[in-house]
Amino acid sequence: MVLPVLPLVPMPRTADLQAGWLPLTDVVRVLGDTTAAAGLITAIEHRCGIRLQADGDAATGGITLRVDPRVADAEGYTLQIAESIEVVGADAAGLYYGIQTLLQLLRETDAGWGWSHVEVADAPRFAYRGVMLDVARHFFPVAEVKAVIDRIAALKFNHLHLHLTDDQGWRLHIDAWPLLSEKASTSSANGDSAGFYSKDDFREIVAHAASRHVTLVPEIDLPGHTHAVGVAYPELVEEPVITDQLRADAAQLGQELPIMGEPYIGTSVGYSSLRIGEERTYEFVRDVLTELSELTPGPYLHIGGDESRGTTAEDFAFFVERVSEMVMALGKIPVAWHEAGAVEKIAPGTYGQYWGMLDPTDAHAAEVAHIVEQGGRLILSPADAIYLDIKYDEDFPLGLTWAGTVDVRRAYEWEPTSLLDLPADAIAGIEAPLWTETVHTLEDADQLLYPRIAAVAELAWSAPDATGRGWGSFRARVGQLAPLWRADGIRFHPTAEIDWRER
């Protein structure tokens, strides 16, 4: 049996489908790397109920898993399926991704479970392939964050950006400032579920991510989006800046205006600010970032910097200069939303995250250019293409429309290197954010993530000239992943753009 289209997302560099079928039975043995073997055995049993056995001492067998740095670039792998299977990773991450490809190829036919014969050689386009989860507006407990990590790792994403703080809530315990978890974690957008992560919780998330080769990128949003800080420590924040636009937004949404020192469950933005001129503010920021740095083995600390409309330009520049240097002093790379590029003396090497439109404004283009001039790199998150909280269409029950609507084809058909007039090596990678103003459950998150997240995965991983890549091919391939997603409990949106398969 030969499948007409390989059910692979993201598209590998090369994938040669051949005649032949390898059946899966419980006599197949998994050889080689014990950690990878255990993961594969568990995943296959979960998918189809067939329990394979690991046999690390056997000389031959059905599925061999090993690492050899010579086979590909970092995170790359080769996969051969014929009379037996061999997955060879350039490193542990590459072996993991090769296994994800093997799992995508596993199919059920009338003759049972098995694989078409195929040869794959693969490696990623971008080193940074990310998803952002907003746990500040809707709190996801540890088990759900781990489920999201499993979901994104299966599509070869390797970074999870956790938006830990915002006006609506603070989500991480800080020893030096205990009222943050006691008082500022009890609210969320629209009165939805709330809470915080203890340090042990956060360590559990970090460890689970590492087991899936995912790096955590924690964000403390500063100096705006800080109303929740004032619920715990009002001396650290300014009075909310109430503008006519804020009043109009609140009236349209039927929400109350923010009141200093009281929890805020609305979704308006841009009114809050830390007290930039107070030294106590920097003691607070230093303590928070120091404790967060100690919890975070990855190289990045995200310091926010977006929509700081309650802060003057001069104060914003002073704050960003000081705090970006503070992160550098902790041995981490600062990441900030692209507005921080307006700051002349931002710490050299700071990464910028671009969340503007596919047609950038002159101001946004200048901000990202300055970040690159200062030795930084860019993470691309264009709102009207890969913000996963934007509606698929006007009638979709979840999501927002301030950036228009984003169907799967729009999420897929843009080219990262054409977005901004910058050298290709200035682009670290791509990240798809999921803001959670309209999210109430993990199922809601699934609906907004899938299938658009698969489009982003392909943009981040696959070379633009990879054989078989393109919208027509993608929509056929992603439709064949439906059985795998269903088996994993993913409640995807069955958009009519895709022909979804039953098995």
Automatic annotation (TrEMBL):
One of its GO terms (cellular component) is membrane. Keywords: Glycosidase, Hydrolase. Coiled coil: none annotated. It is an enzyme of class 3 (hydrolase). It catalyses: Hydrolysis of terminal non-reducing N-acetyl-D-hexosamine residues in N-acetyl-beta-D-hexosaminides. The active site is at E307. InterPro entries: Beta_hexosaminidase_sua/sub (IPR025705), GH (IPR017853), Glyco_hydro_20_cat (IPR015883), Hex-like_dom2 (IPR029018), HEX_bac_N (IPR015882). The keyword Hydrolase applies. Belongs to the glycosyl hydrolase 20 family. This is beta-N-acetylhexosaminidase.
